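Morning!

This is the sequence you dropped in the shared folder:
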Amino acid sequence: MPNLNNKISNKIKVSLLVYQHMLATSLTLPVEMLRAGEAFALSHDKNGKSLSIELVGEDLQPIKSRAGINIMADNTPESADMAELIIVPSIWRNPRPVLRKHPKLISWLNNLWAGGSTLIGVGTGNCFLAESGLLNGLPATTHWHYAEQFRRDYPEVDLKPDFFITQSERIYCAASLNSLADIIVHIIHQYYGREAAQHVERNFSHEIRKPYEEQRYLEGAADRHPDELIAQIQFWMRTNLSSTLDLNEVAAQFNMSQRSFTRRFKAATGTKATDYWQQVRIESAKDLLSSSNLSIQEISFEVGYSDQGYLTRVFKKHLGQTPKEYRGLVRKKLFS
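The structure's back. Tokens below.
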């Protein structure tokens, strides 16, 4: 059993499972990204939390990865401490033989979940989570090549092969390394804040990708709620960004009072209507900045802002940069 009481003061404990035939980049990439987020955060706050990262294996024998890199576990499940975050790397090729050789790691995942850990599975590494039973009845994804095998082996898991990311409470599944990177940026945001997450994303992402929230299948997500009227209003908001109506007038269009609309929107989506509409406008502006030659003034009107100055203030508040700076950054990534 892991030592549930040995929590390190002012540290975020992260454990990564290691085993034969794992994809080395699904181990090294999240570690390097997390370290970059930690370094940025600590450079701005010396009293912030640092990372304690541990590799946990079935035993302490050297593991030779497919890349030819030798990896040594720091601990086994019997001696490993409780961790706040667990990452399960992807497996190179057929996962079944690997799973058969690691019963202690599979059992350990159940102990970690019961102790409050957040779990991230990558590609076929999600088979470890499925084998443990933790994914039964929950959404999950995996590498596309093994989707049908996964479905046959784990019929009780709600496989979502069309999604690169799934999330159910504290369990995340990534289908690929790119989607793992998006989850790690999301985790860094939770641990160290928006500026640290944006810093890591700018330095590790070589292409323009949609935000984490737009890629995932989230169990009980805001856009999958049962309130059909609120869903209709959300669709109207997404397709009428340039409208000059305020939200009270929008509610009136759907025969709702301001009070009822505010209450029902928050209950259905978990967020305020004003915050939702602003986020939709920001994402639309980002798309136009990266993919169109419209001026920033024209983009401001397209997304419902009265002038360029207001859009600039919104961007600096939420993204830490101006629309012009954002356009310059994404154009370099797209065309350089």
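Headline: Residues 25-44 form the longest helix (20 residues).

More detail when I'm at my desk.
O.
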